[in-house]
Predict the structure.
Amino acid sequence: MNPFPFDTFEPKWQAIWDENKTFRTPNPGDADFDASKPKYFILDMFPYPSGAGLHVGHPEGYTATDILGRFKKMNGHNVLHPMGWDAFGLPAEQYAIKTGQHPRITTEQNVNNFRKQLKSLGFGYDWDREVNTTDPGYVKWTQWIFIQLYNSYFCEDTKTARPISELEAKGYSREQINAERLAFVSEAPVNWSPDLGTVLANEEVEEWKNKGHIVERRPLKQWMLRITKYAQRLIDDLEPLDWPESIKLLQRNWIGKSTGAEVHFDIEGNEVTVFTTRPDTLFGATYMVLAPEHPLVSQITTAEQKDAVEEYVKACALKSDLERGDLNKHKSGVPTGAYATNPVNGEKIPVWIADYVMMGYGTGAIMAVPAHDERDFEFAQKFELPIIQVVQPNDDSDWQGFTGNGTSVNSGFLDGMKTKDAKKAIITWLVENKKGTFKTNFKLRDWLFSRQRYWGEPFPILWEDGKHKTVSESELPVLQPEMEDFKPTGSPEGPLAKATEWINYSETSKRETNTMPQWAGSCWYYLRYCDPNNTERFISKEAEEYWMGANNNPGGVDLYVGGTEHAVLHLLYARFWHKVLFDLGHLSTNEPFQKLVNQGLILGEDGQKMSKSLGNVVNPDDVVNGYGADSLRLYEMFMGPLEQVKPWQMKGVEGVSRFLAKVWRVAMTQDGDSWKLSGKLTDDEATSNKELLKVTHETIKKVTEDIEKLSFNTAISQMMICTNAFTKADKVPTALFVDFLKCLNPFAPHLTEELNAIIGNETQLCEQTWPTFKEEYLVESEVQIVVQVNGKVRAKLMVGKDASKEEIEELAKNDENVKQYTDGNTIRKVIVVPGRLVNIVAN
Ligand code: ANZ
């Protein structure tokens, strides 16, 4: 027999919640919507429904949000806590290639399995709001948002997205307009993986290379999203968000803002501009480097250097930015034979090409100052180029390779200036002499938005005479054609290129064959949750204003919980889309996620990351079968602080399971093969047992405060203390026990609802109001008084906290032990210090 019958009552309660739609949340406009309640929108990072099913990392964040959601509901909030599926993606497609089974079928099977697993954990989701990024009704709006991006440009005056029609009205040409669109076509070197048969985003390259795939650089026509226009706003608007500082820092670094100057050099009649963060070091530039792909390379290279340069350029084309940047340990390069003139002193410096200079950053050309830049220093040493000091450190550190701030030297009119002033002075000089300007640069690149895959959203785009346009909105969604062969074509066109009938939209126009990356669907799913079945709009105004609006301060999703792996990409992409939709007037807030919490990774028992190859993966189904869903939930919350990385321990599961069994036995006793009420619970007033009253109210206080702080492990500890007190007591007032059950309910909803029902309460705990603690029950009602006779302690008494001096004196004098020392003597003096002691002098 199980220590408590979770195997029968857990499925029972799950069925009740399902049938009664207990956690359904009405929207404004619904008959049962209560506008007087405050809203609380809790978001989980929705899972990719993989074939492997749920792992124990999923329930960690999901239990945390479920506890908060149930808590907020009991505290009178309209709680929006939905679940859905990020269901496009490569694994389903690769499985389809292997088996010939359509990805839609495997995706559906996986989703059904995930849903079943999540329901078996008793999460209080509003399943009526379930979204699936692959549903035609969802794809329609993802494509609609793409069309909004296509039909917008970024206005530099207002720093916002605006309708492209404004540019049409201004008489811009077709080419000029296309160059401004937020969704645009660009021919650029991209990361092409021949064995995956797709192009990858820069951010994805390392992951797939680590998995053993080949990734090379190729120039290709691709759809891009102009996220770079939002770089400054994406940095600025991070500031007020309630996010971990570490995540904000990752985003800031990813966006990578640098300020400095552009400086124009002359190379035999050609103007070449470099970007530098240290214009104050201009006098120390001893050579110049162009990126191998720089358009001027072939023009300026001398006849003698032509062969060497061409060979070097070819070799570089195969390297990724990462290999050329951070991972580039051995500097390489070749001289072009040409010379550039330094604008500030007219000196001729040699022009090299080297792969440590990237075409995609700044201007693709640098002035090299080997004395004060590490990479230039290494390069100059290797190729024996001159190194001239132009900055003197403020302390006695070595100037060679000194990259910090100091004082300018060997720099003409800058000599003696501090770095900060020298920067200003040189920029002023550059501007006055038309040799350069102040310049801000960002590391952030535009977002490569097309993939050569079948299982993704097709672009709602048609091509006619080499020109693109969108399909009309009434034709959305554009769904993939039915196909049986999902294999990549081997060319960067993708599998859709094989669907000839589908491609030929009309005699004159063809469909775009690329699809969108998986990020597309996850960029806006939180919005769809607010109004999942709307066929007229991606979200209604009313639903958006209620759930996301700024009138519900501070607006947006109130709490977003998920893993740190999404620190940059998903969170940056979603913020970008949100801002565009905000600019275009479709949303009422500027930022989607007000508060972000990252759950810590759950490691295997061996302290290593769980993985199939290490054989240390824990399957949540096994835990549910062996100990019950409540034990799994409680254990994952008891392991340690939510944000911490922590190893799994089966012993710990047993421990919390024993705790739940204890709670069960406060009310229940075994009766042969079944259970019955033990008779320990009584109808006595809650106030009849002062000790239990106090510990229960302490528990209400602590659990309430801890849930608000997402400090679940400490809340559980307090509930363990309370349970021990109940266990020790002969009788427990039912009213106190039910208050306790309410506290435990968000953590262990099945067990607590079962006990509550057995006790005879008809209303489920989750439909009741959260208990409030009374301060007066928390303070000690009695205090200990030490009684001394002639300076020696003879007794310790418990007296009422408010007892008067006279009462205390009487109690002390009449204590049996005290009497032994005073009988036969005369009491000369009694000193009473209320709350502390009584001193009796007798002789
Ligand atoms: C001269 C100089 C002197 C530099 C000095 C630094 C120190 P951030 O923006 O912080 O990464 N740089 C510019 N464009 C580049 C490119 N396309 N590929 C590789 N390197 C590039 O740093 C900008 C600095 O990185 C620029 O400032 C430039 O080197 C280099 F004492 O110019 B500096």
